[in-house]
Amino acid sequence: MLADVMVLHPAAMLTLWAGVAVFVQTLPAPTLWFAALGVLAVALWVNRLRTIKLIRRIRILLVMIALMFAFATPGTAVFADGASWSPTYDGLRLGATHAARLLAMVSLVSILLSKMPVAHLVLALHVLASALRPLGVSPERAAVRLSLVLAELDGPRMRWRDWLETVEAPATQGALRLEALPWRVQDHGAVALVFFAGLVWWWV
């Protein structure tokens, strides 16, 4: 009954999301900056609290990326009188570009987590990872690990000492149940569209 209501299979939805994420990451600056702001605006509209929570967790990394590239990249100094310590225009551009990539990715993750239930997301990864089983990838292990990561993202932030105590504690017994959903014509079409668009973008 759930499969009849859904427009696309969760694995097809995850494939579309991955295609958008890769497309945004390949955009050149300054187009990437505006795209990152646009994705951030959508994420705030979809789920403001979750988006702010995720951004707060990476705020130090965003600042460090901007500062590292601004002051460590050779180029024309912003302040001519203090050329030895001044940031460079090239560094500011690189810092803004890499920070925008990270911000766009976090915003896309927020949209994904808000629009796709955890059970569907785990099912999607399990289905996609099944194609890699001949290479030694375990879909079951990947699904369990993803569920643990999602639980950590949505759970309260822990101090590193509490996290170590949680890791060292005996694992609780539990079962992860996934509902098998059939693939339909539109699912195959969506996945094919992503790969076709990727080939066209790479060729151009």
TrEMBL record:
Annotated localization: Membrane
Pfam families given in the database record: CbiQ (PF02361)
UniProt keyword annotations, A-Z: Membrane, Transmembrane, Transmembrane helix
Main location: membrane
Residues spanning the membrane: 7-24, 30-46, 58-80, 100-125
GO CC annotations, alphabetized: plasma membrane
Membrane topology: Multi-pass membrane protein
Family designation: Belongs to the CbiQ family.
Name of the featured protein: Energy-coupling factor transporter transmembrane protein EcfT
Organism per entry: Denitromonas halophila
